[in-house]
Amino acid sequence: MALIEWKDEYSVGVPDVDHEHQELIALINDLHDAMSRDNSDFTVMDFLGEIYAHVSAHFALEEKIMRERKYDQYAEHKADHEALLDELRDIMDDYEENAWFSDEEFAKAVEKWFSDHFRNRDARLHKHLG
Ligand SMILES: [Fe+2]
Ligand SMILES: [Fe+2]
Questions:
Q1: Most C-beta atoms within 10 A of its C-beta, which of 16, 43, 58, 91?
Q2: Is the entire prediction scored with pTM above 0.85?
Q3: What are phi and psi of 57, to 5 degrees?
Q4: What is the mean pLDDT of residues 123-130?
């Protein structure tokens, strides 16, 4: 079962961008499957590390476009990206310290962040850039 489902409300109205976001969600689901398999040697830390790497690459690309286009809300948008990366690092630290990880809590946090960020920040950015 997919950990995170794509929802129409995530759409920013630009098909290419939606496609990229859909791929990000599909990747999270694939990694989750890899981790959940019986006798999997793909650990929680591998799972979180891979997500962190892909999400930060996606953000870096968006930030590069914003800088190139001198986007007016660059600072706020970047701050929002950093908040998610901080949250991911907190989840990793938590896991390292307490060996505690909940798939459900993780999915809830990521879904909440995606729906806020895609709808508010990314939708505005991509409409603005046209
Ligand atoms: Fe963004
Ligand atoms: Fe994005």
A1: 91
A2: yes
A3: -65, -40
A4: 89
